[in-house]
Amino acid sequence: MISLYILCFPKLTIILLHDLTLFSFICISGKDPINETLTLKAAGIKHGDMLYITVNEEKTGIHEAAASSLKKITKDGTIVAQGILIYLLVILLLTLLNLFIDYSSIASSNGFRPGMMPLRSMKMHWTLNEFVELDSQFQYKISKQPTGEPGFCSKVAVDAKSLESFINYLYTFDFRCMRIGYLYGTVDKNNEVQVHFIYEPKQETTDITFKLLRDEQDANVNELAMMLGYKKVGWIFAHPPREKKFSFSGPEILATAEHQLESVDGVNDTTFITIKVTLDIETNKPHCDGWQVSKQCMAMVAENVLQVSPNLGFCKVNPTFTALVEMKPAKEVDNDFFLCAIPILNYKSEQLICTFPRPNRFGEYQTQNDLKNQLSKIGKEGWTIQTLLADFHLLLYLCQHLSIHDDLPRICEAILNPEIPLDEGYQLIIRSIAGLN
């Protein structure tokens, strides 16, 4: 007979492997078997009680095993079958594992909130104030953003040529798919954002989904932008026409909040801007809006409160948390509750031009011939080699032929400061790359 020290979990039914009933549980007295259909509480078993296990020799076949080669004689002359005890212990461990799994599921359902431990597992004694304070950490009171309430970014101005190029590409597939781009530029002391160029990373999109792929040029893009005095200041996404009341989908809200969180490393004020482009249903003309999500939305995304919902115009609320939408509990939140409108303007970048083909576009490629055509304008209509090289996507193309660490800084310096001439050596190298004599 084997003894077993039991941790008693009320409400759990004793689990036996009925197809491998090599042993049975005996109650504390060591005489009466326990009815396996009873709960531990109904069987009168308490925390710390000792149970006993008896081996059913008829079912284990111990006599046959002893008669076989799997036997040994102990020092006191007892013949025992090898492996039986180990086998029984394995079955016992599997049984206890099932008990633990059942306990975990019950504890989860009886927790302070779904997915959390019961209050007694956190702390034995609670005051009312402590309970209210703990519970309030999992509640979010949500109301509409006040009309005209600005985000932290005061306004955004986008280079007209860059935005025009982005929109023209959307027409190649009739605005039927989403398109993503990153905005690079500057932010002034009044929290006004200026976008000088748009970089479109590798991506896979449908009419409602988007997935950014691994982009080998990502490091070059950020380093080259820094050489020119720019940084990532926002992102832009385009989508097919939608119903008027449906502004942002759940994935778009989550992505916007994540970008804002990353830009300032937490729930802090940020000028990181989102631009949304689509076709106006009534006029059938492209329409652009500037947006930010509220700091409350940033906090909820950081805490994994908001999740993607099948209803695209909403975000689902994690069951662990409570969202009070205008003081009423809600399992989903309309995405419009999180949005702050940002004024958007057009302007012309004074430093960069926007004529070279964009990478990562279907049917659009950057070639030697494109570089040759651009540089062939030198000396015409006031163009110089420095002003023609002042095209971000052309410089990105040159990174395939020149060192971004040794060569591009010298070229960017000449672009930013016209008084510094570009070395004749670099002019010859670039002309050679373009196939010009």
What does this molecule look like?
This protein is an alpha+beta fold. The protein folds into 3 domains: 2-109, no CATH class; 155-347, Cytidine Deaminase, domain 2, CATH 3.40.140; 368-434, no CATH class. Helix content is 31%, strand content 23%. An 8-stranded mixed sheet has the order 20-14-13-12-8-9-7-21. Strands 1-3-2 form a 3-stranded antiparallel sheet, with no helix packed on it. It is elongated, with a radius of gyration of 35 Å. The protein starts with a strand and ends with a helix.
Quick description:
The chain has 437 residues and is α+β, with helices and mostly antiparallel strands. The protein is built from 14 helices and 21 strands.
Q: Could you name the CATH topology of the largest domain?
A: Cytidine Deaminase, domain 2
Structural class by secondary-structure content: alpha+beta
Report how far apart the termini are.
Answer: 97 Å
Number of domain modules: 3
Name a few traits of the molecule.
437 residues, alpha+beta, Cytidine Deaminase, domain 2, three-stranded antiparallel sheet, 21 strands, disordered N terminus
Question: What is the topological layout?
Answer:
Blueprint lengths: L1 E4 L17 E4 L23 E6 L1 H4 L1 H6 L3 E3 L5 E3 L2 H26 L9 H4 L5 H9 L2 E4 L12 E5 H12 L7 E9 L4 E8 L3 E3 L4 E3 L5 H10 L3 E8 L11 H15 L8 E7 L6 E8 L1 H8 L3 E3 L5 E4 L4 E4 L2 E3 L1 E3 L4 E4 L1 E4 L20 H8 L9 H5 L2 H7 L9 H9 L7 H11 L3
Parallel strand pairs: 6-17, 7-9, 7-21, 12-13
Antiparallel strand pairs: 1-3, 2-3, 4-5, 8-9, 8-12, 10-11, 13-14, 14-20, 15-16, 16-19, 17-18
